[in-house]
Amino acid sequence: MTDFSGLDLIEPLRRALSAEGYSAPTPIQAQSIPHLLGARDLLGVAQTGTGKTAAFVLPMLQNLAKTSKGRPSSGRPRALVLAPTRELAVQIGDSVRAYGKFLRLTSTTIFGGNPMGKQIRALNGGIDIVVATPGRLMDHLNQKNLRLEDVEVFVLDEADRMLDMGFVNDVRKIANLVGGNRQTVMFSATMPASVGKLAAGLLTDPVRVEVAPQASTAERVKQKVMFVAKPKKRDLLKSLLEDDGSISRALVFTRTKHGADRVAKQLEQINVRTGVIHGNKSQNARQQALNAFKTGRLRILVATDIAARGIDVDGVTHVINFDLPNDPETYVHRIGRTARAGTDGQAISFCDMEERGYLFDIEKTIRNVVEVHDDHPFHSAEIANANVKSGGSKNKNHRNGGRNGGRNGGGNGGGNGSGKPHFASKGGKSFKPRNGQKGRPQGHTGNRGNNSSRAA
Predict the structure, then answer these.
(1) How far apart are CA 77 and CA 71, in angstroms?
(2) Which of 133, 185, 321, 400 has its CA 20 to 30 A from that of 229?
(3) Contact 317, 293 (CB under 8 A)
(4) Which residues of the chain fall below pLDDT 50?
């Protein structure tokens, strides 16, 4: 589909899309919007950056506008969108306002870290659409600041991360309070059994749409790994930023909040414009850092995984894994934050001895051997040639199977290598068993929708 005119959107929405600079729908939008305009329940599998926010916001706005009977009653919203993090909630709220600017619909975003009083006043004024994080929404429900019986559209965004963060009980409680005669929409970047179980309990005869299967956004990302001793990682990062001028806007991921602070402090000491976001930062501080990064005032944004969930920034040239994650799917989420909107990007991973097993699991998942970059002053041949096995990934699908120890042929790995990957990098090296490693990952690849337009 070449433009939005084929999606039967009302004129105020088309005008808003034009004002935002969007001309053509992305694959997830083209597949989802017709079903949602028809009030069908929907289960969507799509990552951040595919345009999934507009995929549910646009039909939600249109359906609400058509059934509007004036300002809603105090504390009784007509639509509810749940997001796992404050950043994602703010982003969705911004999209609701941008796309709905020519409609007479009201909205508010509620999350922890903001004064309850201000949120209560907004709810009391009568709100069509509430975008919320589960924890703060439960606070308002417990204080009887709002009721959900009038909700016509119920959306769960990034359901997999919502469950990872322990919100499953809150989500179920909230769903039980939402009116029974509702449209329910669920989006998730991955589809583990837990998300499938939740969907089965909440959705009625849903349409399932799926684009950009897990990690297929990596197709335009050049991935490489640098083996380095843990104490030398900060020196390597400093050297990299000083020597490589192409790193103009980079996300640096650390495993811990304290690690993020330490990295940011070191970069600031060498006059690298740096911001940091993690769970210990106030909402205001996190939003300021994110806005500065989006507008180019910061070269580097250091982040933990949960804080970075929902970040959707165009023009990220590099993702740097200062710490490799122990979950391959987290790695895929990270590197998917570069190479947006048809551009290329790079993902650079620092790997110390303790992380060699994590690298094994990542390569097995992506069915690709990550290129080794050893032309740097902190390269560790000992780590590169270490004989390691699987790192015991949090993903159960990748717990079995050993790894050939050295990239130069040393050591044998055991196990059956039966993890189930989700994709293969286009044009990259396919995963092949090495030495004693048996089997071949069984999985399917998916076609990524081609669309040259910016994702709405």
Answers:
(1) 10
(2) 400
(3) no
(4) 214-215, 217, 395-455
Q: Cβ neighbours of residue 393 under 8 Å, at least 6 residues apart? A: 326, 327, 328, 358, 361, 399
Using one digit for the tens of pLDDT, what is the confidence trace for 258-308? 999 999 999 999 999 999 999 888 878 888 999 999 999 999 999 998 766
* Sign of the four-CA dihedral 320, 160, 51, 312: negative
Domain 4-210, CATH class in plain words: alpha beta
DSSP letters for 77-133 = -SEEEE-SSHHHHHHHHHHHHHHTTTS---EEEE-TTS-HHHHHHHHHT--SEEEE-
Return the half-sphere exposure (C-beta side, CA atoms, 13 A cut-off) of residue 273: 14
Which residue, among 74, 48, 67, has the nearest Cα to 153 in the 3D structure?
A: 67
Q: How far is CA 414 from CA 198, 330, 345, 372, 383, in A?
A: 36, 25, 34, 23, 20
Q: Which residues make up the CATH 3.40.50.300 domain(s) of the chain?
A: 4-210, 216-398
Domain 216-398 class, CATH top level: alpha beta
